[in-house]
Design goal:
With 309 residues, the chain is α/β, with parallel strands linked by helices. It has ten helices and twelve strands. It has two domains: 99 residues, no CATH class; 177 residues, Vaccinia Virus protein VP39 (Rossmann fold, 3-Layer(aba) Sandwich), CATH 3.40.50.
């Protein structure tokens, strides 16, 4: 699948790569490092909001609660909800869905401290993993899906609505979705979050080329590409690109792919859409959810949305 997606993406106009492939073991570590930077506030803000509101978020769930996290990362976020359940003397059945083996392993290890928690890991894309998890949850009260970290921003708005509708199709009326969404902010702050002066985000972006070299036999020279982030105000998104700083011919044997980059040509690696609060409610409705509760941080830069199917 990786080889097919690389071949198709580099043959497209504009050339692009799926950001899901950022998250091999090294990419996951680099993203964890990004989250520690003072310029990238999403994770820090969301964790603080979960610390403050986790008890209320899980209050209406059955015992044991069934939590399904799409894109678990290092497990810090779902751990907040599991801890809130544990403080209330309740148990949890947790399903983790991620393409990164290291993320699944790290989160499973993090949740092992709570004895009332059973954890199942699904190493696959979100749609397949969600279907597997729903099938295993059974019919014991409402399920809560977690889609945090503003991962919804990696989809353009129509695709985001379609993705939410796909989630909704597998749920019963009354099931829950906890959706974390980054909001529109000043351009300078957004760009600093995606092009930090330390260069960690640049390394994260270039790691996808390193992965192609390692796993597919590619011959990308990482120094021949520059990381670039820009704010597309009309589309409401931050874009990440890798731009060739010199001409080069690339061959990727395992993907049956050969492509030439002229100076200045690039690869579009990620889009991160930002929303206004009212747009989040409209997006939820388009996906078949009602917005039960919206929690904003003090700076109104991030929203946690408790949605009901």
């Amino acid at each position: 699948m990786f080889a097919d997606d690389v071949r198709q993406g580099l043959s497209a106009t504009p050339r692009q790569l799926n950001p899901a492939y950022f998250y091999d073991a090294l990419g996951s570590c680099l993203f964890d490092a990004i989250c520690q930077l003072p310029f990238y506030k999403i994770t820090r803000t969301e964790l603080a909001m979960l610390d403050a509101h986790a008890g209320a978020i899980v209050a209406g769930l059955p015992d044991p609660a069934c939590l399904i996290e799409l894109g678990c990362g290092n497990g810090e976020k779902i751990a907040r909800l599991v801890a809130a359940l544990d403080r209330a003397g309740r148990r949890a059945t947790v399903h983790l869905v991620d393409v990164s083996a290291s993320a699944l392993e790290q989160t499973t290890h993090r949740l092992a401290r709570w004895h009332g928690v059973s954890v199942t890991a699904h190493r696959c894309r979100f749609e397949a993993g969600l279907a597997q998890a729903i099938a295993q949850c059974g019919a014991r009260g409402a399920v809560m899906i977690l889609f945090l970290g503003s991962n919804i921003g990696n989809f353009d708005p129509p695709a985001a609505a379609s993705f939410l509708a796909g989630i909704r199709a597998g749920l019963r009326t009354g099931d829950k979705l906890l959706l974390g969404v980054d909001l529109v902010q000043a351009e300078a702050e957004l760009l600093l979050a995606y092009d930090d002066p330390v260069g960690v985000t640049a390394a994260f972006n270039k790691n996808i080329l390193l992965r192609i070299n390692r796993e597919l036999g590619g011959n990308f020279e990482l120094s021949a590409f520059d990381h670039r982030a820009l704010w597309n105000a009309d589309a409401g998104r931050v874009e990440m690109h890798l731009l060739a700083n010199r001409r080069q011919a690339i061959t990727i044997p395992a993907a049956d792919c050969a492509v030439t980059f002229e100076t200045g040509e690039g690869i579009w690696t990620e889009s991160s859409y930002k929303y206004r609060p009212e747009q989040v409610a409209a997006l939820a409705a388009a996906g078949g959810f009602a917005c039960e509760t919206r929690i904003l941080d003090a700076e109104r830069s991030f929203s946690l949305n408790c949605l009901t199917a």
